[in-house]
What does this fold into?
Amino acid sequence: MRTSTAGRVGQYAALLGYLVFLAFPFLWLVSTAFKSPRELGSPHPTWIPRHPTLDNFRQAFDEQPLLRAAGNSLLAALAAAVIAVLIATPLAYVMARQRTRLAKAATGWVVVSQAFPLVLVIIPLFLVLKELRLINSLAGLVMVYVVWALPFALWMLVGYVRAVPGELEEAAAVDGAGRLRTLVSVTAPLLAPGIVATALFAFITAWNEFFFALVLLKTPEKQTLPVVLTHFIGAEGVADLGPLAAAAFLATLPSLIIFAIIQRRITGGMLAGAVKS
It folds into this structure.
């Protein structure tokens, strides 16, 4: 009994330490966003601002076009998430139901593609987009985000499709439904939690992405929010800490709000993908 209690206490202590580790950067970011320049330069920093102020937020909006950049990020992330899910869902269905060599090879490609670093793929992607005249355009950036998110979306959705009992599809086939009708009317509704979870991860990945947007977008009017945040850092590497923290805090809000709204669907999607029929 003592051993069991000690083990449980150790587990809770480890979980608490992990939560503190994850929450510390965000809490410090929020604290910094509401501090005055005098507090930011103090040699004795505090968790809670002594004199909270909104000047950092006003200065951030005055210095950089945050709303325009957020609109670009939102458009690119939403388009990439929707297109990636629309492409990945039927492909995942085929890979999960057709146990052929081609399906196994496709699964292997999905796993191997996750090991490719960004630096390795940016040059061929840049050359392809240059030939298509999609450099410095949100359409080209969306195309890159879809290509980058597709393997992960496939990997997630294959597990969700395999969790759907095959007997349901056999019953639909007996009633005369074809493959496409079965996917749309029978399988897709059961995959809704997994599709939502996959789309959310694709959206957040595109929303936070920096490297592709930095390389492909040159015009300030088309830059995304992560790229615009770097403009708060001067040429000598000195950051305008207060406005930068305020802008970064605002940039994290969409992800937090989306997680809070559809948390149950995310949990259901993850559990569905982890269960085998």
